[in-house]
UniProtKB/TrEMBL annotation:
It comes from Edaphosphingomonas laterariae. The lineage of its organism: Bacteria, Pseudomonadati, Pseudomonadota, Alphaproteobacteria, Sphingomonadales. Keywords: ATP-binding, Coenzyme A biosynthesis, Cytoplasm, Kinase, Nucleotide-binding, Transferase. It holds the Pfam family PRK. This is Pantothenate kinase. The gene is coaA. PANTHER family: URIDINE KINASE (PTHR10285). It is an enzyme of class 2 (transferase). ATP binds at G89, S90, V91, A92, V93, G94, K95, S96. It catalyses: (R)-pantothenate + ATP = (R)-4'-phosphopantothenate + ADP + H(+). CDD domains: PanK (cd02025). One of its GO terms (cellular component) is cytoplasm.
Length: 311
């Protein structure tokens, strides 16, 4: 299916599309943007992410031009609408590192300095509600999100450039009551989460979705890797978080802070095989072919090929 809808680029072919875009981040800045257990190199930024930001920069200019043409046509004042970039993929595939890198790189361009980032975990139902619905073992599945609220957020962004999102904490494993993320007329919004390309992520009317999240995106990027690698990254990250974040008594997983290795591995593998693995196979992977860009990672996290949608 993707062999017809997408063109494939080896990493070397893709790297050549960087053209003359200069390197915009120092080694220390790249270091600061790396995710837990993710070794992003300077080569990776230059060969994969600079060409990608160049493509997005060209798209932003083209979409602004298109919006201006329509505004002029109907005689209404034109305004700089936020350009929305979606980042999709499995739990633990490294979406947040990609999103943070894109944010840092895109904000260096003078024509779109204001780049904001929103993660879809803010639209998960709070723990209280998940428990009421018997969904604590289904976090990340379509039914665990307040999809209506997510679509309202995206349509507010499109209509006014302003919107408010709830905030999720991995430490609390819950939505933070009383906290919100106010997004105010960014040039670019990066919208990252495992469910962003799912058709089910929509408001239903008479059993047919009226809008799905994808209706609001200007470009979508899917981070892809083999499940056995993602599962290993999930396990390695869990063991690293156990030595760091879980040591904090405020962490939801603090009870795992000092359990023996074998027991921790079994605990993490159980989370993977009960929740994140099935969600990848049933809901996330089937949304991949709808992405404009598919970025494939090898076992060492490096990107080895990309696909660009042509249909
Ligand atoms: N239990 C946790 N405690 C603290 N941070 C976490 C926990 N689980 C995940 N994270 C962090 O949350 C971020 C998002 O993780 P995830 O949703 O798996 O997406 P991805 O790995 O694709 O970015 C990552 O930076 C990860 O390190
Ligand atoms: C919070 C998540 C659903 C990811 O949410 P996203 O930001 O992709 O919408 C995920 O990280 C998660 O917590 N999964 C539940 C199983 C687990 O603890 O790994």
């Amino acid at each position: 299916m993707e062999s017809e809808s997408h063109s494939v680029f080896s990493r070397a072919e893709w790297a050549r599309l960087r053209s003359s875009v200069p390197m915009m981040l120092s080694e220390a800045e790249v270091e600061a943007l790396r995710g837990t257990n993710e070794p992003t190199s300077m080569d990776e930024v230059e060969e994969v992410f600079l060409p990608l930001t160049r493509l997005i920069n060209l798209h932003v200019a083209a979409s602004r031009g298109l919006a201006r043409v329509t505004d002029d046509f109907v005689g209404r004042p034109s305004w700089p609408r936020p350009y929305i970039v979606a980042v999709a993929g499995s739990v633990a595939v490294g979406k947040s590192t990609v999103a943070r890198l894109l944010r840092a790189l895109l904000s260096r361009w003078p024509d779109h300095p204001k780049v904001d980032l929103v993660t879809t975990d803010g639209f998960l139902f709070p723990t209280r509600e998940l428990e009421k619905r018997g969904l604590m073992g289904r976090k990340g599945f379509p039914e665990s999100y307040d999809v209506k609220r997510m679509i309202c957020f995206l349509s507010d962004m499109r209509a006014t450039g302003r919107a408010v999102s709830p905030v999720y904490s991995h430490q609390a494993y819950d939505i933070l009551a009383g906290e919100e993320h106010v997004v105010d007329r960014p040039d670019i919004l990066i919208f990252e989460g495992l469910n962003v390309l799912q058709l089910g992520a929509g408001i239903e009317k008479a059993h047919a979705p009226v809008f799905t999240a994808s209706d609001f995106f200007d470009i979508s990027i899917y981070i892809d890797a083999e499940e056995q690698n993602i599962e290993r990254w999930y396990l390695e990250r869990f063991l690293l978080l156990q030595r760091t974040a879980f040591q904090n008594p405020a962490s939801y997983f603090h009870h795992m802070a000092s359990v023996p290795l074998e027991e921790s591995e079994a605990f993490a593998m159980n989370l993977w095989s009960r929740i994140n693995g099935p969600n990848l196979r049933e809901n996330i992977l089937p949304s991949r072919s709808r992405a404009d860009v598919i970025l494939h990672k090898r076992a060492d996290h490096g990107v080895d090929w990309l696909k660009l949608r042509r249909l």
